[in-house]
Amino acid sequence: MNPAAPVALFVYKRPALTRETLDALKQNEGADRTDLTVFSDGWKSERDRPSVEQVRNIIAGITGFRSVTVVAREQNLGLSRSVVTGVSAMLDRHDRVIVLEDDLVTSPYFLRYMNDGLRTYAHDPSVVSVHGYVYPVTRKLPETFFLRGADCWGWGTWRRGWETLNLNADVLLHTLEESGQTREFDFDGSFPYTRMLRNHARGRIDSWAVCWYASAFLRGGLTLYPGRPLVRHLGTESAATHAWSLSNRFDVTLSDTPITVERIPLKEHPDAKTAFKEFFRTSRGSWVKRGLRLFRRSFQQSP
Questions:
Q1: Domains observed in the chain
Q2: pLDDT per residue over 15-67, tens digit each?
Q3: Rounded to an integer, what distance in angstroms lies between the CA atom of residue 136 and that of residue 247?
Q4: In 51-163, at which residue ranges do the beta strands (DSSP E only) sit?
Q5: Helix or strand holding residue 222 (H, E)
Q6: C-alpha distance from residue 204 to each of 9, 198, 200 (Å)
Q7: 8-state DSSP, 301
Q8: Which of 43, 75, 182, 272 lies 20 to 30 A from 136 at CA?
């Protein structure tokens, strides 16, 4: 049996969501064969300390995995630095990793899909990552498909994929603008990723994930997506570090059947990209501002 990829889970001060994330992950097929490393960020202020300590009490009692390692930070790194340094440390020791945060609930078939995807495309340099969340689009999607770029809600990559990450937003923005690719980067103008990258470059947000997306996009890198959601985002809890007011527009029903991963052509799927663009555009009037706040939850460092 092929070894399972290790999982990196990033937590901070949300005990209820952390417990829900862990409970779902433990129900995954293959969890008992999976090595789990939990990165617990340090508290930013004494006000946050009790919640952080509650989270650390929860993760101290984790069972159901092949092994559990807890990395308890003494200082507050913030989400951006925590993820970048944690993923980098994992890939110093392993050739692949699966990454989750403390507000992502997974289908029981999430780990199976991620491991199948990471094995199937391990030797294809044009594939930079595998992703578990998919928007609740209206079009029927294929079992799996590729889109250009990278994503951040339940994902995995290889050491070679993570090496494409460029955290210099100025360079990324300049390259996009000089090459005339900003509209395509924004899903043909349907979502303002370029604005987010520009805001990061100007210091208005601190983002690892928009740089991850831009780095992969500019290299022509592809991410594998499932045709049915294997990750559900729960980060609307009021105690979240980056709270927002949001409708249920991003909510999904988790797949109750496995995703079959077979080799498909290494190119972006035009119908799937159109489905994403339609989702962004039809929702834009009612939720784009709130959606930007939601994405900043994943795209920026803790305040």
A1: 7-299 (3.90.550.10)
A2: 999 999 999 999 999 999 999 999 999 999 999 999 999 999 999 999 999 99
A3: 13
A4: 67-72, 96-101, 104-106, 127-131, 144-148, 155-158
A5: strand 222-226
A6: 26, 9, 6
A7: -
A8: 182
